[in-house]
Amino acid sequence: MMEKEKLIVALLAIAFIGAVVLAIFSLSGFFSPKLENNAANFQQFASQANPEDVCAVPAGTDPAQWREHLSHHPDLYSQCLK
Asked: What's the CA gap between 57 and 34, in Å, rounded?
């Protein structure tokens, strides 16, 4: 009988540890779907742009990183790279 109780306690401990690990990964966004590069997602991000000034640095963005990002799209932002 003692062996059976130890086995049950061990299985419960393993299940508890597994639940904690799963909760940590879930809360960290590890299993969240990755954003795909498609037209719908492009429109989502483009809608956040300032239509008055496409060269304006979005709030919370580092200007150097923004300029580097724009340099990857010279066909769209050539006026910003001068």
From this structure: 25
Residue 6 DSSP symbol: H
Total number of domains constituting the chain: 2
Transcribe 50-82 into DSSP letters: -SS-TTSPPTT--HHHHHHHHHT-HHHHGGG--
Q: Which domain holds residue 62?
A: 44-82
Output the tens digit of pLDDT for each of the chain's 82 residues. 689 999 999 999 999 999 999 998 888 777 666 667 777 777 666 666 666 787 888 777 888 988 898 898 888 888 888 7
